[in-house]
Input
Amino acid sequence: MELTNKCFGRCFNTLKEGEPELLNSFFRSFDYQGASYSFLANFIWRTDYAVGWDVVNGYLMIGRVYEDEEGRQGVISMPLTRTGSYDPVSLRDAINEMRCRMRAVGAAMDLVGVSGHMLPILEEAFGGKVDARHERDLDEYVYEKQKLITLSGRALHKKKNHLNYFLKTYTYEARPLTRDDLEDILRLTDTVRAEHDRTEEQLLSLAQEKRAIRMMIDFIGDPGIYTVGVFIDGEMQAYAIGEMLSEDTAVEHFEKANLKYRGLYQAVCSEFCKALPDTCLYVNREEDMGLENLRHAKQALRPHHMAEKYICTLTDQVELEGICAGEGERAGELAAC
Output
């Protein structure tokens, strides 16, 4: 059960479509090395995960407050910098402000999805009072773009055979998607969903994904968004949608293909990578969520490296009590939620 809107509003602002210019100034100023560190990645999931934001002490905070069987919980991602650098003192103050807001509504706070290369920044701000837990299921697979295009090398021989079969067997057209393709995209998404037996939880997740895809389509054509559709006999049978995360790395947010066509997944991945700019060297294909089949498929493509992700708990609770004690009337308002 999600926290009440009143209480959520005390901790965060609602993420709105009209704010990408402000938020992108934070997302684009630093290489966070994570698929979730973009405006779009947060915007398209904002409804299902109640994602909100606020600028605190010069840092952009993205997070949520929710309730589950263990009680009220609060999480934020790694605070984002607008200047391209981090100051340990101001970062500590900003994070503590969010912790006080969470504390006032009865929620402890963790930092989630923290990229491994950013742990030293947190540790400098909080000394040795950071409990960082590696979450293997959230690690993201990063591949060399050129290898995804050609599937060259002995390790990718089986994947290359699938691609070659597709190229020899089918005549197809690959082109960028437009907003006019929305209905075909949703139709294909339903087709792929129907190809497998799903648990109730998986069906819910797929329904959420479909809503996110629908919102992503609204941004097709914007700079930095890259798409491809693969059409056989004039009908869309595969698509991929992604964006640039940094100068040399893209992320592929969505990829769907009709399993009726052997090699189509390899083909749509290759075509998506061909559509990316020359400056792009790597493609982040996100995490495997601990799903065995998905992990096997991602490992089989031989990633160049893994972008490790951590959940961080700050352990300076005694000091935090003193910091939060000064909240006064505002703390009382938050607690009333």
About this structure: Residues 140-307 form a domain with the Aminopeptidase fold (CATH 3.40.630.30).
